[in-house]
Amino acid sequence: PKAVMIQHRSACNLVRVWSDYVGVRPDDRLAQMASMAFDNHVPEVYGAMHKRCTSVVVPDLMKRSGPDMVSWLAGKHVNVMVTVPSHLRSMSGPGVDVSTAALPHLRVLDIGGEALGKDVLDIWAPGRSLFNIYGPTEITVVCAGGRVQPGDEITIGHDLPTYNNRVLDPETLQECPTGVRGVLYTGGVGTARGYLDDEAKTAAKFVEVPSFGRMYCS
C-alpha cells in the first residue's frame, strides 16, 4: 500500500468542502461505514463532526448483509450515506424496494470508488440527491463531483471548490483541446506533499505545471 503524506490543512479543507457540497446538515444522521484504512472515513467521520450531526456506525456484518441493510438504514433513520456502486447493487436485489417509500429518511448518496452505472442511478437516485464523486487519495479523497439524475450523462462532474482539474498533454503539460485525449492533473489545497520515503515516485507524480502550479498526475 502507498503511504501518502496528507497535510492537516488539506484534510480540514476536504471536510469543509465535501460536507457543504453534498449538503450535510446538523440534524442529519450520517452512516459511518468506511474502515480507518480507507480514505473515505475522513469525510464520513470528520464531516459529521464538522456539521455537528450524528454518526451512525454500521456493524461489519450489516455492511455485508445485502438487502437486509435496507430495513436497517430505515430503522436508524439514516439521511446521508457514502458508498460504492457495487454495495448499492448488493442491497437492491430483485423485489427489494429502495425507493423513498422504503427509505424515507435517506436524502443524500455520495457515490465513488467505482464507475457509476445507469442501473444504480435509475434505482437509487429518484427523490434523492445522488452525487457521483471522484478523487484519489493523493489530492485528499475528492476533487470533482456532480449531482446526477436518471437520464443524465454520467460524468465525474466539475471541480469542487478549492480544486483545479485540467486535462493536459503529459509531454508538454499544455491543456488539451476539447475532444482530445489527455491525462487528468489536479491541483489545489488538497494536493498531498507526496509519498512517504519515495522521492522518485513523488517527483514523477507531483509536478509543476506552468500557469497552474504544483499538480498531481493521475
Automatic annotation (TrEMBL):
GO biological process, one term: amino acid activation for nonribosomal peptide biosynthetic process
GO cellular component: cytoplasm
Origin species: Alexandrium catenella
Signal peptide: none
Domain AMP-dependent synthetase/ligase span(s) in chain numbering: 1-196
Protein name as catalogued: AMP-dependent synthetase/ligase domain-containing protein
GO-annotated molecular function: phosphopantetheine binding
